[in-house]
Every structure is written in C-alpha cells, then in structure tokens.
Amino acid sequence: MGSKKKRWCILLTKKDGQVLQSLEPKAKIWFELDGELILGRGGALLLRGIAEKGSISQAIKTLPQDAFGEMESPSYRFAWGYLQKVEERIGASIVEKHRGHSDGKGGTVLTNLGVKLLELYESYEQKLKQILTL
Known about the structure:
The structure is a single chain. It is built from 4 helices and 6 strands; from the N terminus they run ββββαααββα. The model has no long low-confidence stretch (mean pLDDT 86). Helices cover 42% and strands 18% of the residues. It has a single domain, classed as Arc Repressor Mutant, subunit A (Orthogonal Bundle), CATH 1.10.10.10. α1 crosses α2 and α1 crosses α4. By secondary structure, the chain is α+β, with helices and mostly antiparallel strands.
C-alpha cells in the first residue's frame, strides 16, 4: 500500500461541533528585489519550459492555463516582455536568444544565472510543499 501524505486541515465548527468548512492552507512563492516582482510561479514555469524546449513559443504551449493568474494563455510578446522586465530589474540576462537561420537553428536557452534562478525558485517551492503536507 502506498503511504498517504498528511495534510494540514483547519475545521471551522459551530459551538455544537457541526463542521462548517474544512480549510486547507495554501501559499505561493515569489521573488522580489527592492519591492518589485522578479519571479513567480508563471515565470518559473516559463523558464522551465524554455530549459526543456529551447524555445519561448514552445515553452508557452507547455504552460498551464493559470500560470500567470487570470490570463488564459500568454502570447509570445507577453512572455518576451516578461523576461526582459526580469532582466532589467536584476541587471543581468537570464535567457540567451538565438535568431533562426536558414538551417533552422535558433531558439532560446537559459543563461547560468537563469538556471540558478529557476533552481532556487524550485527549491523554495519544494520546501514549501513539504511544509504544507506535514
């Protein structure tokens, strides 16, 4: 038999013990620099997609619909703008873009900093999940 993970659960009850609602704690991770967003869930998923697919447009196709909140599916323009904004805020490149040539070789790769930023985000996300499933 597989082991079932424990989850924190908060029960809201009336004085007579009747359960009104069962609440489950949730949390989100994001990185800020000087009060400005650097990387959140959507950005991390975008970076993971770029790392795996080698292309912004292919990475966008792998994103869940809620990756950037209410936005259904980000456009290439949105994704590229997001990446540029992150780079502007931290003052360094996180992706390296190669223009397509007649041989079809082009695409986007993460820089060493981009890889480190993604790894750091995923590490914190994993630690948070562990805390929430005690």
